[in-house]
Specification:
TIM Barrel, alpha/beta, 45 helices, globular, 6-stranded mixed sheet, 1116 residues, 23 strands, DNA polymerase III subunit alpha, DNA-directed DNA polymerase
Amino acid sequence: MYISLRNHSSYSLLESSIRIPQLIHAAKMLEMPALGLCDRHHWFSAMEFSLACKREKIFPILGCTLTLAFQTYHWELALWVKTAKGYENLCQLITCSTVSNIGDMREKVTLEQLQLFSEGLILTTGGQNGFLYTLLAQHKLQEAQETLNLLQNIYKDHIYIELQRCDPGASKTLDEACIQLAYKEKIPLLATNPAFFMEEKDFKAHDALRCIALGRYVVEENRPKLTPEYRFKTPKEMQCLFSDIPEAIKNTSQFFQRIGFLLESCAMRIPSFPCPHEQEQLRIESEQGLEHRLLKHIFPKLSESIDQDAVRKRYVQRLDYERSVIEPMGFSGYFLIVSDFIRWAKKNHIPVGPGRGSGASSLVAFCLDITDVDPVEFDLVFERFMNPERVSMPDFDVDFCQERRDEVIDYVAKKYGKDHVAHIITFGTLQARAVLRDVGRVLQIPYRQVDKICKLIPYQPAHPITLTEALKQEPSLRTMWEEDESVRTLIETAKPLEGLYRHAATHAAGVIISDEPLSKRVPLYQDQNNTLPATEFSMKYIEACGFIKFDFLGLKTLTILQNAINTLKAQGITLELSHISLKDPATYALLRRVETVGIFQLESTGMSDVLRQLQPESFEEIIALVALYRPGPMDDIPRYIACRHQREVVSYEYPVLENILKSTFGVMVYQEQVLTIAQRLAGYSLGEADLLRRAMGKKIKSEMNAQRTIFVERVLKNHGGHRETASNFFDQIAKFAGYAFPKAHAVPYALISYQTAYLKANYPSVFMESLMNCDIHNTEKLRLFVTEAKRMGIHIAPVCVNASQASCRVEDQKTIRYGLAALKNVGMQAMQSLQKERELRGPFPSLENFLHRLSRTLNKKQLEALIMAGALDEICPNRSTLMYSIDRLLKLSTEPVTGTLFPVESSSLRLQPAPSWSHFETLEYERQALGFYLTSHPLTEFLKNAPDIVTSQNIEKMSHYIRKNQGFRMWGMVMEVKEKVSKGGKKYAFITLSDGDGSYEVTLFSDLLVECRELLSPGQAVDLHAIGRLEDQTVRLIAQDLIPLSFPNEIWICSIKHAQHIEKLENFLKSVGPGSVKVRCIISVQEDTLVSGILEEGFNLTPQQKSAWTSLLEEN
């Protein structure tokens, strides 16, 4: 019987297109009792493959192809796991190859390492790239013999000589030489066939995949290339192929019989905390923590009439109860580990979130500083986190300031040992757009054509759309596929590759801590962007190995808050967010005005609508809002608001429910309320109540029926009433429990929401500065924040090389100076160097001084961006002259300085005089440099003379038209386009437009979107005919028509520096057709001479077409 061994899965990145389920299904159909997998250099697939094989009752044989660096050679060989010790040793070897061995030795192992980690492994000699085939092909028989003997000395009788017959042109002499050597040394032969794709029909797509990996083109002849023989072959095919030496086939079965190791999932292993007795340590630290919390946080909030001793007793009883659950389950060490690194972070002034998830339900966690939410104060149920009646691993997800999260992980690595701590690996896949771009490149399909196709595929990161789905949903794409053979070839080649892994990366949050060196239990991988290695098994499969995952999440909002606190401190204002009042009138006034841009969790359009209706007056209402604004609970929002404003009478089916639901106006809002209702109404313990909640969430019919009977009987026994009423109420709870959100998660997030709102309400310029700096490279966010700051009456001062820092900064209570690094294409590092130079040696008095001092810092793109944004206006106000002299400026910056160190004037600085930009052109260049208009807006002056045009902030005028069911016109510059797909498969889009007053969003439905797509490029001016809907003082705009908006006297300046470009320009202008935009041509005749003139005709030039002209020049 033949056992297929040398299979490579898609975890051999960009080398194999075989997916593990495909491979196992094929083996099952062929009734193979076992199956081998031998990916190259890495073992990403090992656990997934083993578990999948076990499910199908196929025995998994685990191997790995490694590269042996020996003398001057690099040879492939395969190692296979025979025993548990062999598994450990192969983990060690792979870790050596990918982590320990660096530089030229990366992904290679040495003979010494093979010897050190040989026990429990079987070696097979490799095929065409193995040492035998390589040396014998070079007629180095003696050297082949000696190398074989070296490996025999290491592996004894655990060595096989592989025979592979994949290349039809390969010499039979090599096979014969291998066979003779095997007989001479009494080493068994093994027939293998390295498989990189499943069937012959997959060869073409796989060949494209290899070209993607190698950066080659498919049409190239002189490149590494496989043949269709490198497919997964059936036993019949292999028996036919090796009919002359059947023992090589028979030995595959004998090979399988020697394997005595099965990689299986194992029980959870909690790492130990370094202390003599974990339970005692937990008791001491939690009791000390409780005393601190009582004195500093709990007692100060109490009124004088409340007995502190009674409060203390309540907390002590809760603490004792929680420990009585934690300790028998063996989780004391887990709590201590999490507490330790959080306390270290806080001690080192690294912002930590108040909590996340159900962990906030634990008083022990609160006392150990793991969370900053008092579960007693907020009625949080511990059993929602840890259930004494269902043992499961507690899970603390911890938010850290995203800029300093890595410091905490470094601390953990130092404390427990770098070989005991690792990140978790994750994989990037070839999704629809990415695979089309990759395949288009190797098929040499023009970039523009591929880009056009890709843009027809909706971008949905949360639910990526497949190529097959895109063809069904997008008529334009389907038409191109039907009519253009090259498009059809592109898509059909890409389809089999879609979803394959493209690269490995590090999981954003997960970290593993182990009691023993990790490389004994799992292979490790070194991501070049991290100092700490990652496990080669991804999240799901590393947990199957019994490891405990610790989540170190980076939350940008914590960085925003901390940066604002730091700015206030620099101004002499000390503020501790943990001590701010949760009853601040200014904060609630801001939320009632729905000024929620930048407010954590509350800034979406939908949430803003709910805030406007709710008009919150308490922190409890913000908590409820965070919990309710989610799919499912959203349906209860209208009733919650109606009851809150007493427009609907609050009623309770049973009197006992009033105390449970009173804080949420009789509406079930939180998961914890389900637990409390089951406890007080039906007599469940809280542990039983959590099991009930889980059963309701899973909706298993048999379990639900059993629970219904228990619930109804207990309600009738405890509270009387009708059976039907109790049964109906059970249904209400069951429906709610299916989507309910935990209050333990809502409270800490509501707290962060409140803190951001507090800062914005009380320190607006400081808060907006922090927002802008945390998204300094996100143009769309910056545009939003700048618009909001202006609305708040904060002046945004323009960039200036003598006034701006790299980051945005508050100049006074009403002014924020825009940051240099916020410009596009400049980079933070270069702008920090500019700032440092100015701080060190003073302002830049002249252009030449600026150029010489920053000659090693700025490149052409960076200098262009500074000019277009007006950052050099103070030292040279003529932006057009600077732009047309830019090559000379760069050349001058590298010339040696003579005379004084930084001359203010020099005769060598001769700039090419150029026509000044018009106001419109100045703003357009500013938009290109910043991504939006900052100092002014192109429409501002035109709108003054257009009384019929409705502006974005004129809600009253819009409302007038809406009440009359009339459409109206608006003007705007396209800023952003977000395309979506409806449930019916039709495309629509949200278009963000800006005018002189602000920005607004309009919806374009499918037909109009297709018709107007060419108008939707950033910077395009449009005349919009819209209808509106008024919803709670918010206007929803729907586009009825969209046409290009022409500006009087608009001039496009076109610079031509080479004579051959004149004809190209003529052809380009003919292609765009006549329109209203005039074209000024500036032609460089000599280095210092320009010829300028305006063409008589106007042309239909959109921003997209202007960009196309730039691309055309760059291609040449």
